[in-house]
């Protein structure tokens, strides 16, 4: 077997130094995806830097009303956190819609963001995959791709990002906190993941050696809660066929704040900026929602076997927006 | 004897339950003999062609690697009856995933790394893995699985259909399915000179012994095959699979005990699958619903190396009275993995199609689907003309309807809603043949007043140990606690496999015979038997396999209530209720598990399970339990199994029929029929996943030709 070094880091500084000291290292969180990929031979790290003991396991109230979530907070704990349940229900719902109870107990916030696609070609070393081995081709395009992308895919890759949590974070305007050799920085959650373009091997904008240290949620808007809804093949332990997270706020009869993100449609959580622009300043009517969502999904380019995702995403979004809209809306 | 005779029929607890829940039950891969090595297969990376070279050097250079076997250097084996066992004997690659090499190493990790390092080159050809109804390779075989005739015809089915007052012509599709037991296929083998001992995960080790002895050219007496605990089989371990041959081969080659523990990812291609079936049905009926013509034609696939024909049109020969009928199977050999047995082969897909078509007919007639089935109840088995030994389908339908609350049902589709949910209910019948095979058994009375029953039955999680001890206790007329039982080794008296729902009937018959004989002998003794005890043996050859003048089948009825989410097309089964008539139920506790387990697997077949043949690469796209969706707990809301006590003296001494498979038969049709009732849309391809259901709902809302999506 391929042997690897194992380092348990006690601080963020130690972790990034250990990473730098071991070329070919990977950070190890809950291991629910990385270890599987190591068994499959997809990931072959020279060293694992275990970051689960870092003091990043708290959820902290910020002075501006926001919330900072440590990267090591487990998915189960985050979903159950009272502040998350009360103020960011879409996040709690998204977490609980993901994986299984056992996996959520182990998976971390940072690891959830960094999980890899479940595209079967990515996981099978005997088949081509540009994400796993750049230049080898895409097996899914002519193969089995019912679960693959309809938005933002490229000639090289049609994979989707599997996270439910990341979809909620994108809609909620969260920011991802990073620390690396060049210091600390943050990225908007909806720009943290990339579209595949010419480099499908790069899932995110993270730089070599950078560690996700936390996620910051902005102060939640007073008013109706956010929602997450996911369609899937079975009631639990199945990745989304399509999902949507949304937050909607109205003032004086018009939408003054809206965030909509789709899951399982693209290589990253798909922030529906066009739909949001169409809704801002508009009355929150069914017709306005349909117009906005159709505008967004007009960009969809379904593959041979996944055209169903477009109407599925549309109906999910209309359902969620309809439920978020004030009941008094004419 | 003058015992209490109360063991049979009691809900005795599983004898090995404690060992299993405490983790002390040992499975085939857990026999850690000194010096044990581990082997890992190399699957073919092309779907059709031949291996042109195997370069073992990079693997042999890795630490811990002991040997690399391929067709170039593997021991030559006698040609097996089952071509899927002829591993590493020839360069031909009949399908993607076929094993082309085996790496033996000190640890499983080293073996896996070695397998990844073996360089195999191929001469590849374009594969064909896609079954269609018009595939040029389709032919009518001589027989379908189980020795069933491929074609049966009575009267003039086409003429009768053409002139029928009411006609339904319809087609259904069932995708490839996989058994995926919890315990993967695994074997540990060791040679001591020319003596071979194998621990394997199998549904029956007597046949495994025969196969290994023949392939390795040693007498059967020198081969012992043990399957003490088996973590599920569902048909996929009914015959030996490549793991056991590879383990014995690697052990002989290296001189060490060797374990082959197949990883989940390799199972779909090498241990069998339920082949896809394309069904075409024509039902002609009179105005009163009585069938005048019944035609069920099935197209399926098999591999290039083995003809296995899923006998999906066979249940139509049993179910309903129709003066004119035709049942027919066609099969196309493709470059696909070899299909094999999966729980209720034939009946599970066949009854999905037939019972869905019967629901269509009921709708066409405006007749209640329970009543339609009752009106077509035959007085003899339609195909053979033989009388039934017992048949209580009507009673199952009536009892199920009563328990389910069927009578108040509004038959109109889309008549029940709850917010965005459409609610519907459906019914379907079930049937499974009674099979039984000859078996040996031994029963010994010991000086301390206890008894030991020995038989090579296999407990694959069904509770076989427990139930056979119950049969023995009553035959001996002694309390259950005084009966010990040994199963799961080919050194015990020969017995058939746990398959075809025939295990308990076959083994129980022999156990009953041995124990009855022993009881008779003991009755003539003044006191306890002297050491080492008194043994009686039985062999039911000639009795258990005697031709019966009766048609012997179990029957059942499923009732399902579903909710269909109109936003997403997601279907959930709110209630599933089955009533079965399966002879005498020997242990209600383990029987309920069998019925509920079968129904749950049927729920998976209806809604979530399916394997996708990848036309581009030739293998199945789903290779783990994250992508092959068996139902999760959250999918199984309320499942009830009930039964009708049958007193059928034409079966075996226990009066039992067999319960392992009937639970999966008809379940998917009941659920599909409920989805039609809920939505008004008839879905004809499984599984009913959101993509399909949503497309159907959209087409229903906006028929073709209208604008929008």
What can you tell me about this protein's structure?
The complex is a heterodimer of chains A (330) and B (709). Chain A is of the alpha+beta class and 330 residues long. Among the domains of chain A are: 1-55, Uridine Diphospho-n-acetylenolpyruvylglucosamine Reductase, domain 2 (2-Layer Sandwich); 227-324, Enolase-like, domain 1, CATH 3.30.390. Chain A is 32% helix and 21% strand. Chain A is built from 14 helices and twelve strands. Chain A has helices spanning 12-21, 34-40, 75-80, 82-87, 89-97, 101-106, 109-114, 120-123, 139-142, 165-171, 189-192, 273-279, 286-297, 309-324; strands at 5-8, 25-28, 47-50, 59-61, 67-70, 175-180, 183-188, 211-217, 227-232, 240-251, 254-263, 270-271. Chain A has a five-stranded antiparallel beta sheet. Chain A has a four-stranded antiparallel beta sheet with strand order 9-10-11-12, with helices on both faces. In chain A, strands 1-3-2 form a three-stranded parallel beta sheet, with helices on one face. In chain A, α13 runs antiparallel to α14. Chain A starts with a strand and ends in a 6-residue tail after the last helix. Chain B has 709 residues and is of the alpha+beta class. Chain B has three domains: 17-25 and 437-539, Aldehyde oxidase/xanthine dehydrogenase, molybdopterin binding domain (Aldehyde Oxidoreductase, domain 4, 2-Layer Sandwich), CATH 3.30.365.10; 31-126 and 182-232 and 237-270, Aldehyde oxidase/xanthine dehydrogenase, molybdopterin binding domain (Aldehyde Oxidoreductase, domain 4, 2-Layer Sandwich), CATH 3.30.365.10; 143-176 and 274-434 and 550-701, Aldehyde Oxidoreductase, domain 4, CATH 3.30.365.10. Chain B is built from 15 helices and 26 strands. Chains A and B meet through α14 of A and α3 and α15 of B.
């Amino acid at each position: 077997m391929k042997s690897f070094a194992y380092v348990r880091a006690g601080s963020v500084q130690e972790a990034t130094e250990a990473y730098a000291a071991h070329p070919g290292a990977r950070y190890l969180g809950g291991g629910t995806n990385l270890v599987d990929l190591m068994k499959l031979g997809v990931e072959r790290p020279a060293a694992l830097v275990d970051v689960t003991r870092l003091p990043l396991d708290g959820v902290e109230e910020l002075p501006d009303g926001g919330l900072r979530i440590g990267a090591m907070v487990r998915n189960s704990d985050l979903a159950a956190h009272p502040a998350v349940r009360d103020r960011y229900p879409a996040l709690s719902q998204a977490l609980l819609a993901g994986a299984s109870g056992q996996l959520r107990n182990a998976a971390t916030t940072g690891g959830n963001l960094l999980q890899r696609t479940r595209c079967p070609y990515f996981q099978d070393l005997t088949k081509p995959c540009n994400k796993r081995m750049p230049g080898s081709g895409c097996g899914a395009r002519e193969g089995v791709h019912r679960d693959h992308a309809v938005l933002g895919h490229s000639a090289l890759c049609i994979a989707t990002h599997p996270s439910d949590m990341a979809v909620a974070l994108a809609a909620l305007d969260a920011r991802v906190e990073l620390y690396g050799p060049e210091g600390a920085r943050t990225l908007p959650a909806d720009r943290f993941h990339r579209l595949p373009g010419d480099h499908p091997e790069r899932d995110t904008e993270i730089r070599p050696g950078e560690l996700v240290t936390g996620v910051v949620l902005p102060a939640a808007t007073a008013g109706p809660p956010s929602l997450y809804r996911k369609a899937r093949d079975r009631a639990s332990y199945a990745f989304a066929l399509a999902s949507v997270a949304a937050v909607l706020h109205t003032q004086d009869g018009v939408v003054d704040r809206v965030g909509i993100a789709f899951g399982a449609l693209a290589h990253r959580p798909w922030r529906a900026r066009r739909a949001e622009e169409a809704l801002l300043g508009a009355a929150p009517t069914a017709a306005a929602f349909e117009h906005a969502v159709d505008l967004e999904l007009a960009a969809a380019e379904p593959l041979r076997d996944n055209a169903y995702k477009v109407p599925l995403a549309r109906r999910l979004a209309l359902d969620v927006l309809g439920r978020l809209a004030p009941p008094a809306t004419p | 004897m003058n015992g209490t005779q109360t063991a049979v029929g009691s809900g005795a607890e599983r004898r090995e339950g404690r060992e299993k829940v405490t983790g002390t039950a040992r499975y085939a891969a857990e026999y850690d003999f000194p010096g044990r090595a581990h082997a890992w297969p190399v699957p073919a990376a092309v779907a059709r062609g031949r291996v042109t070279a195997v370069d073992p050097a990079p693997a042999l250079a890795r630490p811990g690697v002991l040997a690399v076997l391929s067709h170039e250097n593997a021991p030559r084996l006698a040609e097996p009856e089952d071509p899927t066992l002829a591993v590493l004997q020839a360069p031909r690659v009949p399908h993607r995933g076929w094993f082309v090499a085996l790496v033996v190493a000190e640890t499983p990790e080293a073996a896996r790394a070695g397998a990844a390092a073996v360089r195999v080159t191929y001469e590849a050809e374009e594969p064909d893995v896609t079954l269609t109804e018009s595939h040029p390779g389709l032919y009518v075989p001589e027989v379908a699985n189980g020795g069933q005739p491929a074609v049966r015809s009575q009267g003039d089915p086409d003429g009768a259909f053409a002139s029928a007052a009411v006609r339904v012509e319809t087609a259904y599709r069932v995708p490839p399915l996989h058994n995926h037991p919890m315990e993967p296929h695994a074997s540990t083998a060791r040679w001591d000179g020319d003596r071979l001992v194998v621990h394997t995960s199998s549904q029956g080790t007597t046949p495994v012994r025969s196969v290994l002895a023949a392939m390795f050219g040693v007498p059967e007496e020198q081969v012992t095959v043990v399957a003490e605990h088996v973590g599920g089989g569902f048909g996929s371990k009914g015959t030996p699979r490549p793991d056991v041959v590879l383990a014995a081969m690697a052990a002989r080659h290296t001189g060490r005990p060797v374990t082959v523990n197949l990883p989940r990812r390799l199972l779909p291609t090498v241990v069998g699958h339920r082949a896809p079936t394309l069904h075409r049905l024509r039902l002609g009926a009179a105005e009163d619903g009585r069938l005048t013509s019944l035609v069920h034609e099935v197209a399926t696939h098999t591999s290039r190396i083995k003809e296995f024909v899923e006998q999906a049109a066979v249940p139509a020969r049993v179910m309903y009275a129709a003066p004119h009928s035709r049942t027919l199977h066609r099969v196309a050999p493709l470059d696909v993995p070899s299909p094999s047995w999966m729980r209720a082969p034939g009946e599970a897909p066949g009854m999905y199609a037939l019972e869905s078509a019967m629901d269509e007919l009921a709708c066409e007639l405006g007749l209640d689907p329970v009543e339609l089935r009752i009106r077509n109840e035959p007085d003899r088995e339609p195909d053979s003309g033989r009388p039934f030994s017992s048949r209580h389908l009507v009673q199952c339908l009536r009892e199920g309807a009563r328990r389910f609350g069927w009578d108040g049902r509004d038959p109109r589709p889309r008549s029940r809603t709850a917010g965005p949910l459409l609610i519907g209910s459906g019914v379907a019948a079930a049937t499974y043949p009674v099979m039984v095979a000859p078996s040996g058994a031994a029963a010994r009375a010991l000086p301390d007043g206890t008894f030991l029953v020995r038989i090579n039955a296999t407990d694959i999680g069904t509770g076989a140990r427990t139930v056979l001890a119950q049969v023995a206790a009553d035959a001996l007329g002694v309390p259950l606690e005084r009966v010990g039982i040994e199963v799961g080794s080919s050194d015990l008296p020969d017995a058939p496999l746990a398959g075809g729902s025939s295990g308990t009937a076959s083994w129980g018959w022999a156990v009953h015979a041995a124990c009855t004989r022993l009881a008779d002998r003991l009755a003539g003794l003044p006191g306890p038997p002297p050491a080492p005890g008194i043994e009686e043996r039985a062999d039911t050859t000639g009795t258990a396999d005697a031709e019966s003048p009766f048609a012997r089948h179990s029957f059942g009825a499923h009732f399902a209530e579903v909710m269909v989410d109109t936003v997403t097309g997601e279907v959930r089964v709110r209630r599933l209720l089955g009533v079965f008539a399966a002879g005498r139920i020997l242990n209600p506790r383990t029987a309920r598990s069998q019925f509920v387990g079968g129904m749950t697997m049927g729920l998976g077949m209806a809604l979530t399970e399916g394997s996708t043949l990848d036309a581009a690469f030739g293998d199945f796209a789903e290779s783990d339990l994250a992508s092959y969706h068996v139902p999760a707990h959250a999918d199984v809301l309320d499942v009830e199994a009930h039964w009708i006590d049958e007193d059928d003296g034409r079966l075996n001494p226990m009066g039992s029929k067999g319960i392992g498979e009937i639970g999966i038969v008809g379940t998917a049709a009941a659920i599909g029929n409920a989805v039609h009732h809920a939505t008004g849309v008839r879905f004809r391809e499984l599984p009913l996943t959101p993509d399909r259901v949503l497309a159907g709902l959209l087409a229903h809302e906006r028929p073709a030709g209208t604008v929008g999506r």
